[in-house]
Amino acid sequence: MKILVVDDEAPARARLSRLIEELDAGHAVVGEAADGDEALAFCAEVPVDLVLLDVQMPGMDGLECAARLAELDPPPAVILVTAYTRYALAAFAHQVRDYLVKPVRRERLAEALARLPITTRPQRQALGLAEATTAPPRRHLSARYRGGLKRVPLEEIHYLFAEQKYVTVHYDGGELLLDDSLKALEDEFPGRFLRIHRNTLVARDRVTGLERTLDGTTLVTLRGCPERLQVSRRHLPEVRRWMRAGVPD
Q1: CA distance 17 to 204
Q2: Domain shared by 23 and 84, yes or no
Q3: Concatenated DSSP letters for 194-241?
Q4: Which terminal Cβ of the chain has fewer Cβ within 10 Å, N or C?
Q5: Residue 152 sits in the same domain as residue 122
Q6: In whole angstroms, how far apart are CA 19 and each of 13, 14, 178, 179?
Q7: How many separate domains does the chain show?
Q8: Is it true that the peptide bond before 153 is cis, omega within 30 degrees of 0?
Q9: CATH code where residue 181 lies
Q10: What is the pLDDT along the chain (249 residues), one digit of tens a residue?
């Protein structure tokens, strides 16, 4: 499936493109556009099966752009991407196939793409789409890095640290910057990571023990990681309960 990603924010376009690439289901991002006018011009020149379309953009908004895209022959399918669920009803009034709420989750994106109508089974097989709408669990985290896609296997990760809008992945080979939220990663990998602070998740299988400093601060030590990370008072009881239950070798 040939996909055009439309959003006035470059990081948002990059994140959607990365998620599509991670799905590895026969989809390809054939272009990006920063506004409705760019999207219409692109679709007039390049065959596009699907447009992932942001709603709130300067100039022509997503709803107006969707209406204009519907006039093309043949028109591409459109999925709106919005931070506000109130646009859902308006979306379907503009012949939009579906809508996604920011921050877009990988599983929800896979579900929306799998629901797009495909006429025949050979077409479905050619696109590599699974019959199930649920994406398989990820075994790595990835981000755009130096013009390519950098993948970090989960088993190499020491901890995740959130600062402002980004999460830094600390792993065996260095660091990687993600635009996923820490809460989303915690929910996606409940058995993999343990929260020790409002801004920190640690890999459960890396935890080797707790240390207490002279000023009463509790630190966690991780296998293969030279840093000792602070455990907040709020999360210390849960960390201790988990520790008492047995830390994996």
Answers
A1: 30
A2: yes
A3: EEEETTEEEEGGGEEEEEE-TTS-EEEEETTEEEEEEEPTTTHHHHHH
A4: C
A5: no
A6: 10, 9, 12, 11
A7: 2
A8: no
A9: 2.40.50.1020
A10: 899 999 999 999 999 999 998 886 788 899 999 999 999 999 988 889 999 999 888 888 888 898 889 888 888 999 989 876 665 555 555 567 788 888 888 888 988 888 886 433 334 444 454 444 445 677 888 876 666 678 899 999 999 999 877 899 999 989 988 877 888 889 888 889 999 999 999 999 999 999 999 999 999 999 999 999 999 999 999 999 998 886 544
Q: What is the pTM of this model?
A: 0.53
Q: Do 156 and 205 fall within a single domain? A: yes
Nearest residue to 228 (alpha-carbon basis) of 247, 249, 200: 200
Place of tokens 């007039």: 44
> What range does the domain containing 99 cover?
2-127
Phi, psi of 138 (to 5 degrees): -75, 145
CB-based contacts of 218, cutoff 8 Å, min separation 6: 210, 211, 212, 230, 231, 236
- What whole-number distance in Å separates Cα of residue 39 and Cα of residue 35? 6
Identify the residue whose tokens are 């990681």.
225
Let me know whether 177 and 229 are in one domain: yes
* Residue 135 included in any domain: no
CATH assignment at residue 6: 3.40.50.2300
Rg (CA), the chain: 21
Length of the chain, in residues: 249
Q: Which of 127, 158, 178 is the last residue of a domain?
A: 127
Q: Quote the CA–CA distance of 113 and 100 in Å, as a whole number.
A: 11
